[in-house]
Design goal:
Elements (H helix, E strand, L loop, with lengths): L6 H17 L5 H5 L7 H11 L17 H13 L6 H15 L2 H12 L5 E4 L5 H4 L20 E4 L5 E11 L6 E8 L6 E8 L5 E5 L9 E13 L8 H37 L1 E2 L2 E2 L4 H26 L4 H22 L11 H15 L2 H11 L20
Helix pairs in contact: 1-4, 4-8, 4-9, 5-6, 5-8, 8-9, 8-10, 8-11, 9-10, 10-11, 10-12
Length: about 400
């Protein structure tokens, strides 16, 4: 496929890489993650104000740049290279598309401009503990079992339309401890007519408790969100809106964006490793001069470039997002693991940045994977091993493209 970038796309990448080289990077991570927000607020304001990053894929009528998911994916590839702690993924790739798809005109007009200018961050709170299943990446999300069930479990919505109150809990909410707005998936309608609907909950709502959790990857802050008779506004005016379908659509696009970010992480880890083996000596020679090391690095390069091609394709065709994500997560896991190995003893120390790349790769797969389930569900949707599924409409035997 043609992966040539436009002049505008090159400029987005160059400007972001230059800014992150000055103000971000692995060296700035400890200070950033130690803040109450879990990221550097000053850098976030700069990214939003100078580059318009959170509004990159939003329509111009809402203060966005009017670009596509491709540009946002390219930007996230650069944030992945720098392991940037930021609310970009949760806000721009997960929450904003749902507001655009399900929100009323007034809700879009009130929320999207604030997201575009960086003054409002948002998080997606999904009960059940599996973000990947709720987004339709590793399983069918239409039956709502991922959100608990019926009269109990998950998050329940009570009260009349327009005066809803939520009760329940969601774990592992990405950036949930600091987001100014929560998009909460909850059961409504009562048993047995229970259905899943998305609600808007301000970060300062009464009855809302948010607890930051200890995460494997500290650059991806997670939170437990508890709602106790918390007032909420339904997202959208139509109670029959298909929240599961909107979540699945947003999930496929987010998968493509996350794939590009994972490629950036893998590529940066590989580049740093190549530079290191050029200078590290063993038996009087640079480690990089040994043929076995050259072969390992060449294999990693091919793996990363193949994942990059898949991610760029998925950014243009989100249907390929889950498969591209599987390939990118696998490439990141293998590449960062090899980076630690090839750095030798120093790569295992907390003082070295190699472990941060490994934790990012492992944390992303725990949050959005695992890889084999991403591939299994993609094959199921494509009808590769059975009859045509209702969700895919692809004839039996057509295969996964």
């Amino acid at each position: 496929m043609d992966t040539a970038l436009t002049t505008e796309q090159h400029e987005i990448r160059r400007a972001l890489r230059d800014l992150l080289a000055r103000y971000g990077g692995p060296g700035a991570i400890p200070a950033a993650v130690g803040t109450a927000e879990g990221y550097d607020p000053a850098l976030w304001r700069r990214l939003a104000g100078d580059l318009g990053l959170p509004g990159l894929a939003l329509a111009e009528e809402y203060g966005g740049a009017g670009c596509t998911a491709t540009e946002l994916a390219l930007a996230c590839e650069e944030t992945g290279r720098a392991l940037l702690p930021s609310p970009l993924l949760a806000t721009a790739a997960l929450a904003a598309p749902l507001i655009a798809a399900l929100g009323t005109r007034d809700q879009r007009a009130a929320l999207l401009p604030r997201i575009a200018d960086g003054t409002l961050t948002a998080a997606l709170a999904l009960p059940g503990g599996s973000l990947a299943t709720a987004l339709g990446l590793t399983g069918d999300n239409r039956d709502g079992t991922w959100a608990g069930g019926g009269r109990a479990g998950g998050i329940q919505a009570h009260g009349e339309a327009g005066e809803r109150r939520l009760y329940g809990e969601a774990g592992r909410v990405l950036d949930g401890h600091s987001a100014g707005l929560l998009l909460v998936a909850a059961h409504t309608g009562g048993y047995p007519r229970s259905r899943t609907q998305v609600f808007l909950v301000p970060g300062d709502a009464s009855g809302l408790t948010r607890t930051r959790l200890t995460a494997l990857d500290e650059t991806r802050p997670l939170a437990r969100v508890e709602l106790r008779d918390t007032p909420a506004e339904p997202l959208g005016a139509d109670d029959t809106a298909d929240a599961a379908a909107a979540l699945a659509d947003a999930g496929r696009t987010a998968a493509a964006i996350l794939a590009a970010e994972a490629v950036g992480t893998a590529a940066s880890a590989l580049e740093r490793t190549v530079e290191y083996v050029k200078t590290r000596e063993q038996f009087g020679r640079a480690v990089g001069s040994f043929q076995a090391v050259k072969h390992r690095l060449a294999d990693l390069y091919v793996r990363v470039e193949a994942a990059r091609s898949a991610a760029y394709h998925a950014a243009r065709d989100p249907e390929a997002g889950p498969l591209a994500l599987a390939q990118a997560l696998e490439a990141a896991r293998i590449t960062t693991g090899e980076a630690v190995q090839l750095h030798g003893g120093i790569g295992f120390t907390w003082e070295h940045e190699a472990h941060r790349y490994l934790k990012r790769a492992a944390g992303d797969e725990l949050l959005f994977g695992p890889v084999h389930r991403l591939r299994d569900h993609a094959a199921e949707r494509a009808g590769l091993f059975g009859p045509t599924t209702a969700a895919s409409g692809v004839p039996h035997g057509a295969g996964v493209r």
